[in-house]
Amino acid sequence: MTLHLATLVGLAGTLLAAAYTVPQFRKLRGMATAAGVSVAALANSTISGVAWTVFGILEHEVWVALPAAVAIPATAGALVLAWLRGGSRTRLWLPAVWLVVVSLAGLSAIWVGSGPATVVLGGSVALLVTPAAMTAWRSHDVSAIAASAWSLMIVDALLAGAYGVLAGVNANLIYAAVATIGSLAILLRIGIPAHVHARLVRLPDGIDPDVSVADLSLAA
């Protein structure tokens, strides 16, 4: 019964993983600007997706590998669009560092087992949500951020956590906690009115908090 339930949860997580990465890609494809979107966050997420896929394969956990694998194409596509359309390029050193950390954690499994890889991968989503949240909270215009993508990530995190409990995959439990907290922080920023955000975070001189890049494009 438990195995059957774990399979159902894994399948649901795979379908959701394929879906929650699409809204951000579609939104960027339809916009001329990537305002408020972090290039570093998307690069980190792409690297993490590949790492999770490899981890799942090596651990013989199909419902760990498959959800990660199906999320890679849309995430990588959003990364390319964010780069081309002026997304935030701050902290671009993070993806390079993250690639080294993931690689070392993977190699350490040869000598010390999967413990380090479990912790590193479990917290890997922080490399997506932290830069994304910081960029969103520092940006006066968050019109290019797809709220639906972050809402779906919370559901995905809950499913991943449920599978982690049922199948005994500790990395999933860490992922679920970090992804939920980070996604809520981003959704909170999106939900805050521009004039309220302007009081919380000082904007550059000449920036009107009630005018977005999209509004300026329409007025031009």
Automatic annotation (TrEMBL):
Tree of life domain: Bacteria
Statement: the UniProt record of this protein carries the keyword Membrane: yes
Transmembrane domains' residue ranges: 6-22, 34-58, 64-84, 96-113, 119-137, 144-166, 172-192
Gene source species: Nocardioides aquiterrae
Keyword Acetylation recorded: no
Keyword terms: Membrane, Transmembrane, Transmembrane helix
Protein name stated in the entry: PQ-loop repeat-containing protein
